[in-house]
Amino acid sequence: MNLKQLAKELNLSFSTVSKALRDSHEISTDTKNRVLAKAKELNYQVNPLASSFRKQKSRTIAVVIPEVVNDFFGPVINGIESIAQEKSYHVLIYLTHEDMQKEVAITQLLQNGRVDGIMMSLSEQTSDTTHLEALKEKGIPLVFFDRTVDQPDAPKVTTDDYNCGIKATEHLIESGCKQIAFLSISQHLSISNKRMNGYLEALKKNNIKPDSALIVSCDSDDAKNNERIQELLKRENRPDGIFASVEKLAVSTYKICEELRLNIPKDVKIVTFSNSYTAAFLNPSLTTVTQPAYEMGREAAAVLFKLIEKKKPASPIDNIVLNSILIARNSTKSE
């Protein structure tokens, strides 16, 4: 039994039956149910290889991420693969190592039909989006997750970084902090800017005047980041609270506090965004804003497959924002 014979049995066009089996939005629910019932009755089985050749599909998707030495991207990939396996797709992982030029090279490589769709979380250096516009112009389905850009216009799956930035800062204020520093990871990244804007909004709501000297711009250079944090904590009027935009900056702060013999949380309290299971076992345990990383991967993959299967076009509804959770631990404990 092949698709042509199935269509003949149903007295429907080849195209209608094919779309019905793909759950296309163009076909009514009654027709879909009729086609599925007949397919089951006649034991019709889809030939993935023939289908792939007909549609010129690679049955492969690409996931472009900045790094893997991060407890966030691992669960995201697991979530993506759980959906890809349901769809009988392969997943290719590409690393930019926080380098925009590598990101550009990867996107150029992927323009040749190697994959049916791309999911991407941007590098911290990405300031020019010309290479991303090129993907859109080629008609390659594209979904951003976590680290996103406004242009090109494509579906995005993120967490509520702005509101959680407010929540993390207000938690430090409620814990007694008066001088709160913010450690930024990049001036280009959406996540860093949204978290910083949340930090600034929380200060404003609590009548605390922002101090530009307490906003420290960090990057991928760990040695320089350590120097910046050390300089911050050596100030005569040093901060009594630190909001690290990403986990690695919080870990660096722990190290610097130990070197300077500053007690956490007595001398300085720390909160960060982190999905690391080890946060609970640090000394003291680290207060974190924990993101639903696995769920983000599944949601982003589900949106991508809608585009690939053309069940419906991308729309503002596909800009999904997931909720994160603040988990208070000993690094922000009040005396």
UniProtKB/TrEMBL annotation:
<dbReference type="GO" id="GO:0000976">
    <property type="term" value="F:transcription cis-regulatory region binding"/>
</dbReference>
<keyword id="KW-0804">Transcription</keyword>
<keyword id="KW-0805">Transcription regulation</keyword>
<dbReference type="InterPro" id="IPR000843">
    <property type="entry name" value="HTH_LacI"/>
</dbReference>
<dbReference type="Pfam" id="PF13377">
    <property type="entry name" value="Peripla_BP_3"/>
</dbReference>
<keyword id="KW-0238">DNA-binding</keyword>
<dbReference type="InterPro" id="IPR046335">
    <property type="entry name" value="LacI/GalR-like_sensor"/>
</dbReference>
<dbReference type="Pfam" id="PF00356">
    <property type="entry name" value="LacI"/>
</dbReference>
<dbReference type="GO" id="GO:0003700">
    <property type="term" value="F:DNA-binding transcription factor activity"/>
</dbReference>
<protein>
    <submittedName>
        <fullName>LacI family transcriptional regulator</fullName>
    </submittedName>
</protein>
<dbReference type="InterPro" id="IPR028082">
    <property type="entry name" value="Peripla_BP_I"/>
</dbReference>
<dbReference type="InterPro" id="IPR010982">
    <property type="entry name" value="Lambda_DNA-bd_dom_sf"/>
</dbReference>
<feature type="domain" description="HTH lacI-type">
    <location>
        <begin position="1"/>
        <end position="55"/>
    </location>
</feature>
